[in-house]
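Project outcomes to date are best conveyed with an example. Our students and postdoctoral researchers have been running inverse folding experiments weekly, and each run begins with a structure described purely in tokens. The record below, which covers 226 residues, was selected by the lab manager from last quarter's runs and is presented without edits.
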């Protein structure tokens, strides 16, 4: 009994008020901890965001081919058997894309401007060739290799394709890269060709005062992805 009395004096049992106060303290602490968790959860669930956008226009390229020249200057007395006429032809790439092109031609009979027309078809006595320019003379083309020759289209050296559809003499107007197609890119945007037309030296009197109209057609297409 004495020992229990001494223990109570050293470490007295807390009063009911102290017990209640401690319980309130721990309850309040628990509430604060839970509140802190709740605040943390609310704070981390909010994200800072940003957004940006870029735009740009897409423009298609162009294929534009122009040609200047190709006017044959006949001698004052007219073309005679064995004679030749020349015409420079300047081809320009005026588009924004590199291109390839082909040269075709068609020939049709026409009526002379004066006098009694002969009975022969002049087309059968002519030969057309295309040479790389810019020199466009007899001397410059006599020994030069041509880019295209109508002799490859007919039986013999002389004779033009009768048409009406143009026949290819340089390259091929078909889509895609073809042998002997000419190209003009962003660097080399222009070139001059020489058109030479010869008359057969074997033409007889039936071809006096006859005429033919020659039409040269250039077909171009893009080279990129083609």
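After processing, the design step wrote out the following sequence:
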């Amino acid at each position: 009994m004495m020992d229990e009395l001494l223990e109570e004096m050293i470490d007295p049992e807390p009063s009911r008020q102290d017990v209640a106060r401690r319980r309130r303290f721990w309850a309040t602490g628990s509430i604060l901890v839970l509140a802190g968790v709740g605040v943390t959860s609310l704070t981390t669930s909010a994200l800072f965001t940003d957004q940006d956008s870029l735009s740009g226009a897409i423009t298609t390229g162009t294929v534009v081919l122009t040609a200047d020249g190709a006017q044959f200057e006949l001698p004052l007395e007219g073309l005679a058997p064995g004679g030749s006429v020349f015409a420079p032809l300047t081809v320009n790439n005026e588009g924004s894309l590199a291109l390839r092109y082909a040269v075709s031609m068609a020939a049709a009979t026409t009526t002379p401007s004066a006098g009694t027309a002969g009975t022969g078809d002049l087309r059968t006595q002519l030969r057309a060739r295309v040479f790389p320019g810019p020199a466009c003379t007899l001397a410059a083309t006599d020994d030069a290799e041509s880019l295209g020759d109508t002799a490859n289209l007919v039986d013999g050296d002389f004779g033009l394709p009768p048409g009406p559809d143009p026949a290819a003499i340089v390259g091929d107007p078909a889509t895609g890269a073809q042998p002997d197609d000419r190209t003009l890119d962003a660097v080399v945007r222009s070139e001059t060709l020489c058109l030479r037309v010869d008359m057969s030296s074997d033409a007889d009197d039936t071809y006096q005062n006859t005429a033919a109209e020659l039409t040269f057609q250039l077909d171009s297409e893009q080279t990129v992805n083609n």
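The CA atoms of residues 40 and 46 lie 10 Å apart. The chain is about 20% helix and 30% strand. The training component of this project remains on track.
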